[in-house]
Amino acid sequence: MLKKIAETMAKAGSIAILPHIAADGDAIGSSLALAIGLSGTGKDVRVLLEEKVPQIYSFLPGLELAGLFDADDRRYDLAVALDCGDLERLGSRRTLFEKASITVNIDHHPTNPGFAALDYTDPSCAASAEIIYALLGEMGIDPGNDEATCLYTAIASDTGGFRYSNTTPATHIIASELLIKGIDVADISRRIFDTVSPGKVRLAGEAINSLKLYEDGRIAVIYIPNEAMRRSGAADEDTDGIINIARNINGVEAAAMLREMENGDIRVNLRSNSHVDVSAIASKYSGGGHTRAAGFTVRIGDLEQVGKMLLDDLRGLL
Ligand SMILES: [Mn+2]
Predict the structure, then answer these.
(1) 33 C-alpha vs ligand 1 centroid, how far in Å?
(2) Which residues contact 211 (CB under 8 A, 6 or more apart)?
């Protein structure tokens, strides 16, 4: 299938690359790497985003090929959904995707149902970037420093710096091949892991103050009401990684972060450390994700009510 996708892309003149809404390091890095590679072969290629690129990824090469999607009514020869667990993750770009002559879905979420003309999903990959690396190879594109920087950022993001259980021997082999391209690992790591905004530091304080432990400390939950976001001055992207404050506590197996959104929705992020399959809970509420990291959004009550419901589910899995 990857070969077929490579051949199809080679024939397409215009290509739209669509990372998931609230794009993370893997979604953005994979998209930019593919865009740089394709534009080098003379393709008319655009990365279309639902939101502005988060500040921490503003160092990535290839951003000149990316832009905000604003009712772009062009019809592309080919559209790629990248790192999107399902069609909903395309947000308002779904119509653009469906309008393209050929649709492609490249992803590593095990819950991906397949929704394109050409689906390539591989849950054994730690990041979608591993698939993009292989795809560039299939197309005979040798990644340069720019593609390698994007792919490394993507893989490092989704593996938490090669520390999560999704990290495989293949992950390290690909990383090693990216290092050979001369990328600056220390600089990338500092930018994506060790740089925080003042808002995020204050949000971490709010998160710690709200944290509650249940079931003899095996479940940890962080509650972020809308006021906490306002008080801290945190941006949306600043919630990234806050859940690790809960997950990292000694003895915790399952961690959750409940966030009240401005429209009243409750966004739930879930993590587990060794045996609880949190993607099962996410699926129950039409969300998705991986065994150790998943999430969903509901509109069925306030923070407290959703918290109670979630605790029942978590207790059932412990
Ligand atoms: Mn990913």
Answers:
(1) 14
(2) 220, 221, 222, 245, 246
